From TrEMBL:
Species the sequence originates in: Nitrosotalea devaniterrae
Cofactor: Mn(2+)
An annotated GO BP: tRNA splicing, via endonucleolytic cleavage and ligation
Pfam families registered for this protein in UniProt: RtcB (PF01139)
Record-level Gene Ontology MF annotations: GTP binding; metal ion binding; RNA ligase (ATP) activity; RNA ligase (GTP) activity
Domain of life: Archaea
Catalytic machinery residues: 406
Function: Essential for tRNA splicing and maturation. Acts by directly joining spliced tRNA halves to mature-sized tRNAs. Joins RNA with 2',3'-cyclic-phosphate or 3'-phosphate ends to RNA with 5'-hydroxy ends.
Protein name: tRNA-splicing ligase RtcB
EC number annotated for this UniProt entry: 6.5.1.-
Amino acid sequence: MSSLIPKKIREMEYRIEADPSKGMKVPVTIYADEKLLQKMLTDRTIQQAINVSTIPGVLKHVVVLPDGHEGYGFPVGGVAAMDAENGMISPGGVGYDINCGVRLIKTNLMEKDVRPRLKELVTELFTSIPSGVGSKGAVRLTSSDLDEVLVKGVQWAVDHGYGSKDDADVCEENGQIKNADPGKISPTARKRGAPQLGSLGSGNHFLEVQRVDQIHDKEAAKKMGIFNEGQITVLIHCGSRGFGHQVCSDYLRVSEQALSKYKINLVDRELACVPNSSEEGESYRKAMFAALNYAWSNRQMITHWTRKAFERVFKQTESDLDMKLIYDVAHNIAKVEKHKIDGEMRSVVVHRKGATRAFPQGRDEVPKKYRDIGQPVFIPGSMGTGSWILLGKPGSMDLSFGSTAHGAGRMMSRSAARRNFTESQVQKSLGDKGIFIKALTREGVVEETPEAYKDVDAVANVSHELGIATKVAKLVPIGVIKG
C-alpha cells in the first residue's frame, strides 16, 4: 500500500509535488477519478511514478493515466518525457511488449447479419489466426526476409499481399518508423521473432468482433466510417511477440551495465537507462524501432487473415464488406516528438508505456484523413465489457504530452483470477451477455475475466472530462478469440 496521498488539484487531477529530498526532479500528475485513484494506491503505481521523476533529464512532470497500475520500473499507464539531448532513454519505459497496440477495422455489416453466423465466424477467425503462448505464424521467414520486416513494417506485409497501401496511410508512423536497424538485434531475438510473425499471442491479446453500442460524436464517427449503432467492427490487440520481449531483455542488460559508465544513480535498477544521445541509447532506439515495425507488420498480416475469414463466412469480398482500417495506434513506444516545455517547443523523448498517443487536429503526425478532427484513439476494455473510440484533443498536449489511457488497466493478478474464477463461470457470464469466445487454453479465459480489470467507461470518462481525448463511440464485443 502506498503511503503517498496525492493532492487534489481539481476534479480528476491529482499531484505529488517534486520533493528534492527524494531525488524528484519534477512533479507527478495523476489523472483519475476517486475510485481509480484508490485502486492505484493499493499497489506501487504512485511510488513507481515518483521513481521515474528522479531520472536525469526528465521534464515538466511524470504522468499517470486513469488506467495506471504497477509495472516493471515504470508504471503501466505512465508517460514521461526526457530531454532529447541531455536526457535518458529507458527500455523499462517502453516495456517488454514493444508496440503492443490496437487497430480497428470497420465493416458495413450489422449485428443482425452476423448473429446467425457468429459461431461460424469466430471459429473461422480462430482457425485462421495463430494464437497462444509460443504460437508460430503461418509464414516462414528467411534471415533477409526478417531484415525487411524490421525495416519496412506494414509495407513489407503489403508488398507480400497482406492488405493494401491504404492500410499504411492510417497507421501511426504509417506503420513504418524510420531508422530501424536489424544490425542492432541479437541472434536470440531473431531466432524468437522469425517463426512468430503473423500470430496473436496470449495473455491480454485478443481479436474481437464488436457491435457499435453508442455513438457520441456523429460527425467524427462518420469520418471513420461508423454510421449506425449495431454496425460491426473488428478490434485487433497484439504486439511484437517474443521478438520485442527479447529486444527489451537484451537492452535492459546493456543499460544496467552502462549505469556506472555514465555515472547514473537510480533509486530502482528496473529504471535502467542510458543517455539518449549515447552509443547505447542509439542502439536501443534502433532495435526498439525494429520491434515497432515487426509489430505493425504482425497486425497487418492478422488484418489480412481477418478479412479473408469474413469473405469465406459471408461469401462477399472484403471490398463488398467495406472492411477498411480505421486506425492503428501503438501503446508501448518511445520516440522523439516536439512538445512545449516551459513556453518553448523542445525535442523530447516521449516514453509511453501502456499509453496511447492522442494528438489533436492540425498535428503533422496525424494522417491527412483525420488531420482536421484529430487522431483516433482506442481504449479497449475487458472481453466482457466494451471498448471506446475517442478523438485526440488540444488538452492532451498541455496535460499529458499528447497521450491518453491504453485500456481498462488490470486490477487483479492472473494468479488471483485463477484462484477466484473457473473457465465455466467466465464462459457462462460471457454467454449470458451474448458473447461467444474461442480460446486456446482455459487459463487464457480465466486470467482475462472481466472482473480482473478496471471500469473502461470510467477510464474513458476521465480522458473525456479533462479534454485529453473525447468520446466518439462505444463498442461492445459479440465474439472473442484469445490465445
